[in-house]
Design a protein that fits this description.
Strand order of the largest sheet: 2-3-1-6
Number of strands: 11
CATH superfamily of the largest domain: Nucleoside diphosphate kinase-like domain
CATH architecture of the largest domain: 2-Layer Sandwich
Distance between the termini: 41 Å
Bound molecules: adenosine monophosphate
Low-confidence stretches: none
Number of helices: 10
CATH topology of the largest domain: Alpha-Beta Plaits
Number of domains: 2
Shape: globular
Radius of gyration: 19 Å
Length: 246
């Protein structure tokens, strides 16, 4: 059974929430009792650079981008203990999932959140100055504790970026899947269908992938333009893998 794509959303409990031990509080506010939503996927993720950059691709080039990437990777809240750098990724499902979660999250900017929606999750967030190497202030980063998909298209892109189909119970998988009939390997922004030294295996025959990912891999292998970058497909297969390109 497949669910209506309007009915799911991605939530990330970000490193500032983990550092401040707010995970349980956030999960309580988002519980089925409060929202009527069910969680369909849960994952503890050590966020690597590829995943961070794909998740925040729309902010590339903005003044806060570099700081935002460091933030979601956990580098700013766990400066020494790299092993503590984590995000909790959740997929919630049910009627009006996107709106219900965003209402409880509140406005993006924690100052607006405190002003407009006291008591919402992000009202507990902070603003942090962003400085250049000379110490000049360039702007502010919003440490706002959770990410919540903004709309249907973002929810689909983000759920497919953070979860493989098999991370979600079959009856709750919201998007079409397909079975791989080939091996796919990745190294340095390139795909291979046979093993190359230093490459990571992304899919093997029989593995289940999102249909759109599989179609993108096939196009990229033929040197054609795909609907997304190779990294958008590959990143989820490298989640929590020891393999990482520097
Ligand atoms: P959004 O894509 O709107 O969910 O924003 C993603 C994250 O980027 C937010 O949660 C903030 O941490 C950060 N962000 C968005 N807009 C700004 C901004 N104008 N200044 C600083 N940080 C921002």
């Amino acid at each position: 059974m497949q669910h209506n794509p309007t009915d799911q959303t991605l939530v990330l409990i970000k490193p500032d929430a983990l550092k401040n031990s707010l995970t349980g509080y956030v999960l309580s506010l988002l519980s089925e009792f409060h929202t009527g939503l069910r969680f369909a996927g849960v994952k503890v993720v050590h966020v690597n650079r590829m995943l961070a950059e794909e998740h925040y691709a729309e902010h590339r080039g903005k003044v806060f981008y570099a700081s935002l990437i460091d933030y979601i990777e956990g580098r700013l809240h766990y400066t020494d203990d790299a092993w503590k750098r984590r995000v909790i990724a959740l997929m919630y499902q049910g009627p009006d999932a996107i709106k219900k979660i965003r209402d409880i999250a509140g406005p993006t900017n924690p100052l607006n959140a405190r002003d407009k929606r006291p008591g919402c999750i992000r009202s507990l967030g902070t603003l942090a100055p962003i400085k250049d190497e000379a110490g000049n202030t360039l702007g502010e980063r919003m440490d706002n504790l959770i990410h919540a998909s903004a709309n249907e298209a973002d929810a689909e892109r983000e759920i497919k970026l953070w979860f493989r189909p098999n991370d979600i119970p079959p009856a709750m998988q919201p998007f079409a899947t397909t079975e791989s009939d080939e091996h796919y390997y990745y190294r340095e922004s390139k795909l291979f269908t046979s093993h190359e030294p230093g490459s990571a295996c992304i899919l093997a025959p029989g593995d289940i992938a999102w249909k759109t990912d599989f179609e993108a891999l096939q196009l990229i292998c033929k040197g054609k333009q795909a609907a997304c970058t190779v990294e958008a497909v590959v990143a989820k297969y490298l989640i929590n893998e020891k393999w990482e390109e520097e």
